[in-house]
Amino acid sequence: MYLIDGVQVEKKDFTLPVENIGVWRGDGIFEAIRIHEGYPFGIDLHIERFKKSASKVFFDNINFEKIKKDILLVAENFQNGYVRTLILRNEKDSFNVFCFYQPPIDVPEYFTLQTQKAYWQGGGDFLEDDVFNIGTKSTSYAMNISHTRFAESNGYTDALLVNRENIILEGPTWTFGWIINDHIHVPDLDLGILDSITRRYLIRFGKEKKLKVSIGRLAEEELENIQSAFVLSTAKHAIPVSKINKINYSHHALINEIQQTFKDEVNIERP
Ligand SMILES: Cc1ncc(COP(=O)(O)O)c(C=O)c1O
């Protein structure tokens, strides 16, 4: 299913000119939402983040109520998969909203990760209040994906991004979590990582006492001291990490608990 500005089109018409600045400069923002039996999980939080991204990079007069309706329409037609919504700048200073269904993707059972320095990531040098556009979920993802490709070329599933001081940030398309003393940890937002929706849910599960969750920092040198680690995103509700660089990790029961808590939450939220 393909919508441009709320109008359903055929796949062959779901296109845009290369001249658009959204294509050749990546001047756009996006959200990806997972569908669970017709329900787009966390839709209100995704819309809230979409609004924030829009205001950070000067997309004005966007009708988010209409975008929400488009997303609900796409989702209700499918059992699983994703709704992707992109707002992309045109040749002139206008924009189009592209909303489409993406079928389920294959997610590996375990991730193996290679730490890589991300020179282009704020990495804690700048805080949200210092910089107007930090935390934008923009469509400029070429650097992120270059890390994934580099990790793959070295035999790993993906990269684990670190800052100048080797503090762990996030993955190219996911949040990192780790377990020490049977306690779950996620990095703090002052590291300039994306304000991930699934990370927010996990922190909320901690506040609701469903799981033990803390916000902190982990240096690459400390990877030897952790019990286990996991990858977290809209597409990955806690996928275990079996190896980072040369260090192997065994599965930890808490990762199953995280997965189960997400399943329960979907059931609570879905109307
Ligand atoms: C860089 C980055 N970090 C974290 C995430 C996880 O965010 P969410 O939980 O909202 O899917 C994503 C998802 O696309 C991402 O691209």
What is the fold's blueprint, element by element?
Blueprint: E1 2-4, E2 7-9, H1 21-24, E3 28-36, E4 39-40, H2 43-56, H3 64-76, E5 80-89, E6 95-102, E7 111-117, H4 142-153, E8 158-162, E9 175-180, E10 183-187, H5 197-207, E11 213-216, E12 228-233, E13 236-244, E14 247-248, H6 253-269
Parallel strand pairs: 7-8, 7-13, 10-11
Antiparallel strand pairs: 1-2, 1-6, 3-4, 3-5, 5-6, 9-10, 9-12, 12-13, 13-14
The structure holds pyridoxal-5'-phosphate.
Structural description of this entry:
The strands form 2 sheets. Strands 7, 8, 9, 10, 11, 12, 13 and 14 form an 8-stranded mixed β-sheet that branches. The protein has helices spanning 21-24, 43-56, 64-76, 142-153, 197-207, 253-269, and strands spanning 2-4, 7-9, 28-36, 39-40, 80-89, 95-102, 111-117, 158-162, 175-180, 183-187, 213-216, 228-233, 236-244, 247-248. The chain has 271 residues and is of the alpha+beta class. It folds into 2 domains: 2-102, D-amino Acid Aminotransferase, Chain A, domain 1 (2-Layer Sandwich), CATH 3.30.470; 111-269, D-amino Acid Aminotransferase, subunit A, domain 2 (D-amino Acid Aminotransferase, Chain A, domain 2). The mean pLDDT is 97.
